Q: What sequence folds into this?
């Protein structure tokens, strides 16, 4: 990407270059940085609106702080593109989220300016607190620790846990609350309403401005007068907003709200706050998508446009798969199917932790707003809330991305499995998700869930099976029921078939063969079915079985497999350590079978970012690699 349009920005190779500029140049830096992000993301699909919304905040932070000695932690990291560009990665930014390119999130392996690796929400305050306490223990002074967290991330329990501990430790941490009233979808809940009350209280803000002007005229000085100013300011907040300030109630100094797009004033405020010891919150009001009209008007759609776009017209070009067929996304099959089932069964409700658009529960939310719930970024709460619904006779479909379900592991055990409650846990984005990388791959659900008693764990091979598993899971006496499926499109255009119950724990034989049997789980079975068909045309007969249920296993089918074949290949889109292949090996050992078993899956390492196609090829789960391995096994 040519940089002739960014004369000032291309002079900034590190924040130290930025800090050499006079304040009056900051507006130009912000303008060029925003334009650079628009140009880059329009050509290379990535997250978008969040970084545009914090351009001024990013510039102000690096201008006021002495990074990387001062530690700056971005919560989640969707909004850290400006940070990356200002910290020496401008020329690499064209590789953002691409295979072997830079990460879409801050990474400690990528830059000293990335103080803590992120990707999931609400970790920044706890991490910042740990860094600040380490400095205290080591006698390190003069360093600032700043956590930038959005109002959406503040809805998670971990953020409140960090705030609570930060107050008790009297830690010298600044939490910058980036308030735009948005996560990926609009924020929900009492905290969101509370922050809106503060931000929009015209009376409070007017009285506060008048107070500051009056104090300036009186020219009060000294520590006692400063203490009086703080007390008066807090009293005004308590009097004129709906309730006592939640942060001040935790003994955390609260400042704001301030305009997050006034870069010069923001930089000045941040410099002043460096001199205020102890825990403190700066409440900054920003607009997600700032500077790109379409992103401002439709913030959910432009969180990550999903394709290249014309920066003048906003016309988005969908990434082509090379196929003319248009089967639906698995998430959309879920969204339409749960609505269809809910119309048949008035006990069905839907729950998601802040991902209604991503998982397509928004389809049900629009049609049945009283029976579908966005609970905010709170996976633990989502599971236990579902358990409460289930124990009272409802049938909750709790839809959580696979990588986010890791955060609710205890709730699955303690609140659902032990009590044998009929909670249907739909794990979207299982397997390798692509450009979001290691923090978002749904690699571990099979391994960590398989160890939990009372669970049914299933994975559909296609969209029709997804519908039928959802139908089966809501039938009486099914207990805790897990259905996992990947990001992306399926394989059937004609997927709206009548519902049919699937026998729990029953797999199916798709093709019988000689010597070699391939056992697959989930949509990878579609690839294998094609490979087996092609090989059969060459006279290589390979057995193919759709395991379908990892728990309980279809033991009758497995007895048939190990009695009929000398070589077994297991293929899954989950961690190879402890997954479906491990379950098959355990069955073989416990039943005394002698057979060569080869396992394919996600290897025992963290897979980085890139397109799904590139990543599956890297780990040997693309069609070409699978075909080569099956041929090799058949020849042996």
A:
């Amino acid at each position: 990407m040519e940089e002739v349009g960014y004369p000032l920005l291309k002079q900034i190779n590190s924040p130290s270059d930025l800090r050499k500029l006079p304040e009056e140049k900051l507006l130009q830096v912000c303008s060029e940085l925003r334009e650079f992000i628009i140009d880059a993301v329009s050509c290379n699909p990535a997250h978008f609106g969040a970084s545009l919304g914090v351009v001024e905040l990013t510039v102000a932070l690096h201008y006021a702080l002495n990074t990387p000695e001062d530690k700056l932690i971005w919560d989640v990291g969707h909004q850290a593109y400006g940070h990356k560009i200002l910290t020496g990665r401008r020329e690499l930014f064209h590789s953002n989220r691409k295979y072997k390119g830079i990460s879409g999130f801050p990474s400690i392996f990528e830059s000293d300016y990335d103080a803590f690796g992120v990707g999931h929400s609400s970790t920044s305050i706890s991490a910042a607190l740990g860094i600040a306490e380490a400095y205290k223990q080591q006698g390190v002074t003069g360093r600032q620790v700043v956590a930038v967290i959005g109002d959406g991330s503040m809805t998670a329990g971990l953020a409140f846990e960090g705030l609570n501990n930060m107050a008790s430790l009297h830690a010298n941490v600044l939490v910058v609350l980036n308030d735009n009233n948005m996560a990926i979808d609009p924020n929900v809940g009492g905290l969101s309403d509370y922050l809106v009350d503060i931000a929009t209280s015209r009376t409070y803000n007017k009285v506060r401005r008048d107070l500051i002007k009056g104090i300036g005229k009186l020219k009060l000085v000294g520590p006692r007068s400063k203490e009086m100013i703080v007390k008066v300011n807090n009293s005004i907040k308590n009097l004129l907003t709906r309730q006592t300030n939640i942060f001040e109630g935790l003994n955390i100094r609260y400042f704001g709200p301030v305009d997050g797009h006034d870069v010069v004033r923001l930089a000045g405020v941040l410099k002043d706050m460096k001199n205020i010891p102890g825990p403190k919150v700066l409440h900054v009001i920003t607009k997600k998508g700032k500077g790109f009209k379409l992103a401002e008007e439709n913030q959910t759609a432009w969180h990550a446009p999903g394709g290249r776009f014309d920066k003048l017209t906003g016309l988005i070009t969908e990434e082509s798969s090379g196929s003319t067929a248009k089967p639906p996304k698995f998430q959309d099959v879920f969204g339409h199917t749960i609505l269809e089932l809910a119309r048949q069964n008035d006990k069905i409700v839907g729950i998601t932790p802040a991902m209604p658009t991503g998982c397509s529960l928004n389809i049900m939310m629009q049609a049945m707003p009283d029976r579908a719930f966005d609970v905010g970024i709170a996976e633990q709460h989502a599971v236990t809330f579902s358990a409460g619904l289930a124990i009272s006779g409802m049938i909750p479909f709790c839809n959580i991305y696979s990588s986010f379900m890791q955060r609710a592991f205890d709730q699955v055990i303690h609140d659902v499995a032990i009590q044998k409650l009929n909670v249907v846990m739909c794990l979207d984005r299982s397997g390798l998700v692509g450009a979001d990388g290691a923090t978002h791959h749904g690699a571990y659900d099979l391994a960590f869930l398989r160890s939990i008693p009372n669970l049914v764990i299933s994975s559909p091979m296609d969209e029709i099976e997804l519908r039928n598993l959802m139908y089966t899971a809501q039938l009486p006496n099914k207990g805790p029921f897990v259905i996992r499926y990947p990001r992306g499109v399926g394989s059937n255009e004609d997927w709206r078939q009548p519902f049919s119950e699937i026998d729990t724990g029953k797999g199916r034989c798709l093709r019988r063969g000689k010597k070699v049997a391939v056992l697959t789980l989930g949509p990878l079975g579609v690839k294998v079915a094609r490979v087996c068909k092609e090989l059969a045309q060459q006279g290589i007969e390979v057995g193919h079985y759709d395991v379908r249920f990892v728990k309980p296993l279809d033991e009758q089918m497995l007895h048939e497999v190990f009695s009929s074949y000398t070589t077994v290949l297991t293929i899954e889109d989950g961690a190879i350590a402890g997954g479906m292949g491990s379950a098959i090996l355990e069955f073989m050992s416990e039943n005394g079978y002698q057979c060569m078993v080869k396992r394919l899956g996600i290897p025992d390492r963290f897979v980085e970012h890139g397109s799904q196609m590139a990543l599956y090829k890297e780990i040997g789960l693309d069609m070409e690699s699978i075909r080569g391995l099956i041929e090799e096994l058949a020849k042996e």
Observations:
- Residues 312 and 428 are 34 Å apart (CA to CA).
- Confidence is low (pLDDT under 50) at residues 320-324.
- DSSP finds 26 helices and 19 strands in the chain.
